[in-house]
Amino acid sequence: MSAEQFSSFDKFWFKFKRRRKKYVDPKQQSRLAFEILLMVVVLPSLFYIFTISELWTTIFFGSQAETIRGLFYSHLILLKKAWHVIFLILLFIVFLSIYFTHKIFGPMVRFQKVLEAKLKGEGDIHFTLRRGDYFQDFSKIVQQIALSKIEVPKEVLLRSEGQLFDMTSDKEASSENHDHSSENNKTSST
Length: 190
Fold this sequence. Notes:
It is a single chain. By secondary structure, the protein is mainly alpha-helical. Helix content is about 70%, strand content about 5%. It contains 7 helices and 2 strands. The chain has a two-stranded antiparallel ribbon. The N and C termini lie far apart (about 85 Å). The mean pLDDT is about 75.
């Protein structure tokens, strides 16, 4: 069968199933999926609060407030009866947001691994992103860095979660501290 014979849903499903790991960065992907779900739930809820409330419907709709409020109440009763449909829609939104976050965080995890390998001194590192992933232009820059000859000095400071880590060995650090303390003693005595 050729690609033209598949429906757009089938093409989407094949792409979705082809990705090996759906959670490449579970913490970040779950956080973003939760934030998307929260917005999908909170914004319509605020709409209903503002349209059902007597004060707000009077402010927004004036003399037609009672009619509008009655329409929204009947709509709310319909939604209460169709709660299982709402649940399925929210579940679909969660899965869809995980799919799209995979297109974001998958390349980020790959970039992180490539740059960590480069910092460890590995030679030429070739990588590609999947078609459809975000950050294709940025991947070209990371690829240039991965293929370039960069010497990482031993005194590189890494920042991780607000703490600084010195990459020098303990012997080098103690000799540098000794050198700095002897220089300070010389300057203070003069």
